[in-house]
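ok so i was messing around last nite and threw this chain in just to see what happens. nothing serious, just curious
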Amino acid sequence: MKMHFCIPVSQQRPDALGGRYVLYSVYLDGYLFCRVRYSQLHRWNEQLRRVFGNSLPPFPPKYYLAMTASMADERRDQLEQYLQKVTMDPNMLRSDVFIDFLKLVQLDTFSITINTAALDIFLPDGRNIQIEILTSDTAERVLEVVSHKIGLCQELLGYFGLFLIRFRKEGKLSVMKKLADFELPYVSLRSAGMENCKVGLRKWYMDPSLDSMLMDCTAAVDLIHMQALQDIEQEWAKPTQAQRQKLEALQKEDNQTKFLELSQEVRHYGYLQLDPCTCDYPEPGCGAVLSVGNDEISCCITLPDNQTQEIIFQMSRVKCWKVTFLGTLLDVDGPQRTLNQNLELRFQYSEDSRWQWFVIYTKQAFLLSSSLKKMISEKTVKLAAENPEMREKETQNLKQAPVSELSVQSPTPRGSNSQTARS
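result:
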């Protein structure tokens, strides 16, 4: 699946010979990832092509004469498309030539040298684990170091991820983004531009039934048990009074297995809850709290008369969705660190045999989009596992599914961009 790469703005800079060059600000999941020149990306493409040949997407051609404004816009659009398409190949994502280049540009952009450093990893029970890493270590590598320290089975690493988590007043927390495997957590934490932000370890699957895959590993059970307690404390998971009493009794008995079995019955267990936002349903400007998981989007809407209404959107009836940046043109002298203040996610949904667009205005739009993609991916894998004869067909369908066809559109003025996915 394509990743949420976009280049909403570029800046002209003077070079050492008295000329000028263009510096592109690349954002990933709404956060400034790096700033690069065309020549750097061109050399990278040549390196990738030597390894992967014609499987690479087309790269924007060189111009030997001065570019017009329309040519510059076209090149920026083409670079966006290239970055998104090149991340669709999992073999490419894991290759040294891919990772080493992205390491370098992240470090260079934020003027961070390669050194050993201490990094605190926040656990769901409130504890921090301090690990020693290199500033150039990727999220995948950091996760391996953390797993070794807590005894988490290596084969289960795919069920967990590292996240940027922001801590707010009264103990509330917000999950801001999941770190991609090739991101550098040390750099991302310092470049995010957010106060009270930490790197946190959380499970990364949206189907609560996948807990069953982890029950033979003590460290994994500890982690999902911690997260279940945290989600109840944060009121993301919503047990009834009777369920709460049973869970408290099981907690006193230190019976994690039974606790997690009962948690499966709790409303919104295993869901990711977003910060309060607004939506356009049933009318514009309504407040909303979204919980995402178990193949659905649960939306608790506050109506103009302060009454609340819960709407459930089933992923099987979502046709497509699009993330759009609604802001004005970015500061060309120093691009802002995030695009998350002016984002919307709109999705097309089948209701009463007709397709209708629903719009959600949330700074966590990219995280929401990633969660929707995750649910579709998990469902596809589950269907293939249930019917081995369909495995090859479903794998091919996933590759061809519109959800993987993410694209960025950049209308003028260039502070607006959208990413589209289909299910």
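not much to say yet. The chain has a mean pLDDT of 88.
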